[in-house]
């Protein structure tokens, strides 16, 4: 049985030295000027902006303090021409990904993984993954399935100001929930297929060899039992999601 450890919000702790790449998705960053986004941005080993996300980075800072990613990728139907040109002049790597069968996020993730094939990267965080368009939210979750095929040993987290999610593959998972940044609720969602055998510890509503299936039971509005670790054993891919404490997001 495979064992996977997930650091989750521990990545945000000041003493934490996780090497991660940050992929910024096209969602407003106005509410993120302080708190989580800034922390993630400052500590990232590598920063990528997908298409329209570049507008948000551009609009956030003054020309002097403007946030500068390492790479900008996308089909470029959302980024403003002047914004792309400004970053080009600043020497930022620009990669056009015109394929219309995959999202800009999926394509960007692949580029980031290729860049880090030989360098150390503990995980990848995609910020701005929820809110806005529902089709995009499903596509962002779908990208987690692809990420597992491309780089099964590199955890990928979807985040926004309020949530962090990751895809648990078949096996046993140890989820660190003792960072003090955790909010009150969490969930286990069998997105792609029913999970017939799920066992958990560390939750208020645990399962023992239980079945999770849309139309039958999915685990939402769950919460902690008070321990710093949650364990999940699952026979099929299962989306873990939890919310982030308000004080961090204000
Ligand atoms: C069956 C099928 N449905 C839909 C599409 C269309 N499609 C899927 S991914 C993609 C690119 C999306 O680009 P992105 O910039 O991520 O999103 P946008 O904001 O432009 O919608 C497109 C057009 C397709 N290629 N195949
Ligand atoms: O509502 C949304 C819009 C976008 N995204 C993500 O951002 C990238 C880039 O978006 P563009 O609209 O092409 O600039 C897209 O691939 C999505 O992953 C989103 O999550 N929600």
TrEMBL record:
InterPro entries with a match to the protein in the record: Thi_PPkinase (IPR006282), Thiamin_pyrophosphokinase_euk (IPR016966), Thiamin_PyroPKinase_B1-bd (IPR007373), TPK_B1-bd_sf (IPR036371), TPK_catalytic (IPR007371), TPK_catalytic_sf (IPR036759)
Catalyzed reactions per annotation: thiamine + UTP = thiamine diphosphate + UMP + H(+); thiamine + ATP = thiamine diphosphate + AMP + H(+)
Keywords: ATP-binding, Kinase, Nucleotide-binding, Transferase
GO molecular function: ATP binding; kinase activity; thiamine binding; thiamine diphosphokinase activity
TM ranges: none
Gene Ontology terms: cellular component: cytosol
Lineage top rank: taxon: Eukaryota
Enzyme class: transferase
Protein family (similarity comment): Belongs to the thiamine pyrophosphokinase family.
Protein name: Thiamine pyrophosphokinase
